[in-house]
Task: inverse folding
């Protein structure tokens, strides 16, 4: 529902209006993305940082980026295991 000023209104489960305490949908600045890229370039820190970014209450854009990165990494690891298993089976035949 919208109010008289055509601004979105947040409602709780009782239908009462409540203010949005955090705006996690702001545009992420270029400097922030550069900081994320630098952190993710550091070998061990990147694993800790990507998991932390995926599950912390931070900007929605960074959170979705981290979640997509984890999903993609999981898919690639799965393909690597599958491919490695196929190579091992073929090598064991000869």
Result:
């Amino acid at each position: 529902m919208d109010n008289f000023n055509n601004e979105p209104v947040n409602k709780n489960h009782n239908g009462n209006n409540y203010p949005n305490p955090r705006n996690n949908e702001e545009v992420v600045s270029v400097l922030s993305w550069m900081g994320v890229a630098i952190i993710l370039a550091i070998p061990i820190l990147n694993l800790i940082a990507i998991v932390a970014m995926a599950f912390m209450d931070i900007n929605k854009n960074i959170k979705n980026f981290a979640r997509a990165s984890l999903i993609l990494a999981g898919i690639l690891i799965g393909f690597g295991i599958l491919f490695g298993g196929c190579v091992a089976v073929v090598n064991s035949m000869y």
